[in-house]
Amino acid sequence: MIDAIKEAVNTLSYPWWSFTASIVLFALAVKWKWLWTKAGGWALHIGITVFLVLSMFDPNFRAVVAKPDNIPIVMLVYLVTFFWWFAMNKALENDRRKEAGEPTFEETESEDKIFTWPDLVFSEFICMVLLTVGLVIWSVVLKAPLEEPANTAVAPNPSKAPWYFLGLQEMLVYFDPWMAGVVLPGLIILGLMAIPYIDTNPKGNGYYTFAERKSEIWLFLFGFIVLWVQLIVIGTFLRGPNWNFFGPYEFWDVNKIEPLVNVDLSEVIWIKLLGVGLPAHWFLREIFGILLMGFYFLVLPVLLLRVKLCNTWYQKMGPTRYWVGTLLILTMMLMPIKMYFRWIFNLKYFIHIQEFFLNL
Amino acid sequence: MPKPPKKTPDRHYDFGSLNQIFAWSSVALLGVTLWMVFDDYAKPWKRMQAEFRSLERQKLRAELEEERRQLDQEELAGVREQIEAERAALADRRDRLSELQSEVTRLDKKIYAADARARTTKSILDTARYELDVAIQKGGEEGEAEARHRFEELSARYFENRTELEALQEARAEAQREIALVREGLVAAQGRLDGQLAALDSLEVRMANLSKKLDYFVLNAPLMDFIEPDLKIEQIILPGLYQDINFTTVERVDRCMTCHVAANRAGFDGEEWREPFRTHPRPDLFLSAGSPHPYSTFGCTTCHGGLDRATDFARAGHSPVDEEQLARWKESYGWEAQKYLEMPIRPAGMSEAGCVGCHAGNLWTPESEVQDVGREIMSRAGCYACHKIDYSAFTDLPRPGPALRRVASKTSPGWAYRWIEAPREFRPTSWMPHFFFQENIEGEVNEERQRIEIAAAVAYIWDRSERVEYPAPPPGDAARGRAHFETLGCTGCHLIDGEAQRDQFYPAFNRMHGPNLVRTGSKVEAGWLFAWLKDPQKYNPDSRMPSLRLTDGEAADLVAYLMSLRDPEFEGLDVPEVDAELRDEMVRHYLQATQTIEQSQATVAAMTPRERDVYLGGETIRKYGCFGCHELDGFDDAKPIGVELTEEGSKPLHQFDFGHVHDVPHTRHDWIQTKLLRPRIWDEGKERVKDYHELYKMPDFGFSEREARAVTVNVLGFLEESVVAELRADAGPDAAVLAEGRKLITRYNCRGCHLVEGQGHAIQTALESVDMLPPNLASEGSRVRSEWLFDYLHDPGAVRLRPWLGARMPTFAFSDEEVNVLLDYFAERDGREAFLSAAERPDERSRAVGEVVFGMLQCAKCHPAGPAAAAGGVVSAGELAPSLLLARERLRHDWVPGWIKDPQSFIPGTKMPANFVQKRDGTWESPIAAAIDAPMFSAQKRSMLRHFESDEGLKEFLADPDRVTVALRDHIWWNLR
Amino acid sequence: MTKNHLFSLLALLLVLPLAVGCGGGDGAPETEAPAPAAEPAQGGSGSIAGAVTYSNGDPDQPIAMDADPKCAEMHADPVYTQKIVAGDDGGLANAFVYISSGLEGKKFPAPGEPHVLDQKGCQYTPHVSGMMTGQTLIIRNSDETLHNVHARPANNPEFNQGQPFQGMELERTFSKAEVMIPFKCDVHPWMASYMAALDHPFFAVTGEDGSFSIEGVPAGSYTLEVWHEELGTQTQQVEVADGAAVEANWSFGGGDAASGL
Question: To the nearest whole angstrom, how far is the Cα of B285 from the nearest Cα of chain C?
Answer without folding.
Answer: 23
